[in-house]
Amino acid sequence: MKEKNNKLYEWKKRLSSVHMYSIIIIIFALTLGFGIYQYKQKLNYRQYLQNRFQQAFYETIAYVDNVDKLLAKTKLTNSPEQSASIFAQIWKEASSAQENLGELPYHHSSVSSALKFLSQLSDFSFSMTNKAIDGFKLDEEDWEKVSRLQMYAQTLSNELNNISSEINDGNRIDWEEIEKAGEKLAMDDSTKIIGSISEVSKQFQDMPTLIYDGPFSDHIERMEPRMTRDKETITKEEGEKIVENFIGKDKISSIKQTGETDTKAEYVIPVYSYEVTLKDQEDPTIAIDVTKQGGYVLWMLNYTEKESSDKKLSLEEARKKAEEFLEEKEYPNMQPSYYEKVDNTVVINFAPKENNVIMYPDLIKVKVSMDDGEIIGFESLGYIMMHHDRDLPEIKISEEEARSKITTDFEIKKVNMAVIPLESKREVFCYEFKGEYENNPFIVYINVESGKEEKILQVIQNENSVLTQ
Amino acid sequence: MSIKKILMGALIIMMVISSIMAIFTSYIIPENIETVTYTWGSEGDVVKEIQTKLKQWGYYEGSIDGKYGYETWKAVREFQEKNGIQVDGIAGSVTLNKMGINVNTSSTSKIYSWGARGETVREIQRRLKNWGYYDGYVDGIYGYKTWLAVRSFQSKNGLQVDGVVGSATLNALGIPTGESSTTVDQNVYLIAAAIHGEARGEPYIGQVAVGAVILNRVRHSSFPNSIAGVIYQPGAFDAVSDGQINLTPDETAYKAAKDAINGWDPTGGAIYYWNPATATSEWIWSRTIIKQIGKHVFAK
Prior knowledge:
- The structure holds two protein chains of two kinds.
- By secondary structure, chain A is of the alpha+beta class.
- Chain A has three domains: 41-221, no CATH class; 236-386, no CATH class; 399-468, Nuclear Transport Factor 2, Chain: A (Roll).
- Helices cover 45% and strands 23% of the residues of chain A.
- In chain A, strands 5-6-7-10-11-12-13-14 form an eight-stranded mixed beta barrel.
- In chain A, helix 2 packs antiparallel against helix 3, helix 4 (108-133) packs across helix 5 and helix 4 (108-133) crosses helix 8.
- The longest helix of chain A is centred in the N-terminal third of the chain and has 57 residues, at 18-74.
- The relative contact order of chain A is 0.06.
- A three-stranded antiparallel β-sheet of chain B has the order 1-3-2, covered by helices on one side.
- Chain B is globular and about 70 Å long.
- Chain B is 45% helix and 4% strand.
- In chain B, helix 8 (186-199) packs across helix 9 (204-218) and helix 8 crosses helix 12.
- Chain B is built from twelve helices and three strands; from the N terminus they run H-H-H-H-H-H-H-H-H-H-H-H-E-E-E.
- At the A-B interface, helix 2, helix 3, helix 4 and strand 1 of A face helix 1, helix 7, helix 9, helix 12 and strand 2 of B.
């Protein structure tokens, strides 16, 4: 005890000595120096970020300006060639504007409608380019859309230029502030910050729907599933029965409903969601969704961890298992197309064949375990959205004529008839020519009505997959 | 007395400054470094490489047999001492770097044994636990219980019973060894990293759902039109803002990413999701909710 007190006293004495002072002052100076260094670095990073954003901002303005000017020019073209060239430029400029605007730290709520406008403008211009290349003149309806788009492009261009002139007047955009303000810029009108584009975004919110032949057209969002339309609504108990049949009653230990689609949700397929616990498992390892209308299984995933076995199925065996499964679940005449091996599983894509025509839009995917051939995944969104009795157009081009449309170096190995979906989900009836060009496999689709080359796919083939691109 | 006051003042100022600095430097990105260490009992080509180098430089006198024994241990310690590395006789990443051995690019297989840490060890434990070999914590640290479990797994599967997880054992466990997964598509990696950062603790379907939302955004006109564009859009994902995207994705995240890319969409076409318990956004609630999976609400 006494010793301890002595030590404490000694320590106190040492602290009060002048020597100790200098040490503390040195430590203090070092920390201060370190702090200043850190602070300066932070400023550097901040400046770097500001510069990046500023660049993206100025580029957005430049691209939007170009789009605005180009749209005005389209009206003066009178040949398809000229329109094709101008729309191709708009396609590129609008896409670059969208990219740059998307990099700025605006909250999604204040920038999403402007982004949508630019995507659609770019996509629409691409479809107009294609139309013009096919030799068509733009019709009344197209011009009406062009005028409307031009009006909005002008609004956006003006608004951005207003911000730019504010900068010229000596104001600066503080991107950090914009990021921090976040959704307040869109939600709360009293918040005003230089560089905010919430005002202009609001005007885009009531932009009328734009329908055209492209993937960003508004009709894609609003498509109705063909299989479930007008079908009777099932109860969740009936849904449970469907799950039971799909997976096999004898394998199941319990089924639990985990949720269902909110009744307010529009343009989604209403489903009941279930979770299945298998007999040899403690926890649920299968998730499955059943459509409320018609009671179709929309998708199923079995994520049980399997102890891998030595005997692996061949692809051929796995395909057979998948085909048997589809047959059993009453999806007859399904044709396998491409597949991909992932770890110890393979995902095989199937499409129905009706009267010798393959219906590629009606896609079903089956996932098979290569360990024991069990079906561990099923996905039928394509089938449920698209499958119906189609009235196929009359064939106007013979197979011979279609062949003559393809470059002669393409060595044709197999011909099929097929309905294929374009990016806009529009379906076209085609001859499918499978073959090789310079030893690389390709698939070429020729429209049976017009003889137009609708699509060229390259087949990517390796030991693990056959994919198309 | 006044000296004491000055001292106290100085101390307080220093404490304040250091806490300010702590705030300044607090944006340290969590990084999950896979640590592969070589020590007693390690075997393989990397050990051979270590021995060769040490022999060249005159630290090692034994034979180059690829077995990490006493001689190798001594030589590594000597090497560490000369090079100012912590002298522990374990060839970890620092030591290997100093030797100029690049573990990632060398074609040799990774080996996990006593003392190894990281995501792969976690994965090994998870699988062994699922199959009833392991009853310890899934903590990513290769300890005694893991060693026992690995041994019993090896003996059941006709592998050499050494308690060391090499490529043969990894294969039997169904964990891809670096060798077999030749090319991981960059898109799969990006989505797996986003899933891992955003939804690590979520049920499997919830992880697939997060991947599906990213892909739905790519196809949606109000978002950037590429996977990288969507993931790195400023403010879009918390895991990107706070750097958790840089964590190495685990096997489950990869699996979920692949299912999402192959077209499984548990969300029914959602482009937003949030955790209702922690979401502070007012705007997000104006979206139409589709359904809830795990902790996340998915919406259009």
